[in-house]
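Hi,

I'm pasting everything inline rather than attaching a file, because the server keeps stripping attachments. The sequence lines come first, and each chain or strand is labelled.
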Amino acid sequence: MFSDFKAALEDPEKVGLGEGVKLYGLPILWNIVQDSFQADAEKKSGGLPRVALEAMEEILARPLAP
Amino acid sequence: MSEEFASKFVGTVGAIVTERLTGMTDKEMKELDKDSLAEVLYSFRCFLALGTEEAEAARQIEEMQLSFAVRFLKTTYLEKRLKGVSDLRALLERAHARAVLQRQRQKAVDARVQLQRPLTHIVGPEGQKIRPTSYLDQSLLRDFLVREKVAETLFGEGAHPEILKRAAPVLRFLCEQGAATQEIIDMVWSCQQGKHEETVRVVYGLIKEVVTDMPPELVASLFAKVAQQPPDDYSEMYVEFLKDFTVRALGADEDAS
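And the predicted assembly:
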């Protein structure tokens, strides 16, 4: 587990995830999911966090595939 | 009739027909029937073969096909522009077939293997036979497309979604041939900004198709633009695109390492 998840997404190298690691859209997708936890979440489109979560699942499935 | 006369006759007629075809006005291009040009070029090739070396006849015809494809693409008539992009794609496929067959022939020579039968075509993704170009190779095509600013025509001012839908093979070719530039990638991204949802969808699809063929530095700079989308403008379509972009770009990074 990351002690500082935000920092890990912003700068993977700093938390020892390897040199030149690129995450592309992953941090944005996480922000969308996280924003839905906020108090004004009802303002956001209901489907967006779900789609973002499914997108993260699909992105992470490849490196975690057996 | 002497052979000398016939040969000179063919040469003269060839030059006149070439001049007529290459000198067509925009109005004539507009009125040109979709299939008649192909028929004329086919007949013209047979005619040229009477008094010209096969390779020279092929050079003339293929140069004309390329020139017409780009001229069609540059007209203001959508129907002709669609034909232009379709003809250009066909030539790119044929030049690719040429490169593949050349490699196969070289491999056979290197391995001192006698080919069972001549290599005349490759089979496309839909099972179709793709005949190679005789003269045009990929570097000639690349240089021509760059010189004629074909990317600017496809993705610049007046980019049309129907053209963009068909433009992926051209952009991919430019990437593979090292001719894609930052300016071209910027244009691709710009041609969906502030446009109708359908155009945005088409450009997202185009990028998705080509991102794995783009050089890493262009992928990085394109992503920087993608990431600039203001959160208030996020949509399900954007999130889906972000996922596809990420999956493909990560896959390409992994394949490259």
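The two ends of chain B are 68 Å apart (CA to CA).

If the labels don't parse on your end, tell me and I'll reformat.
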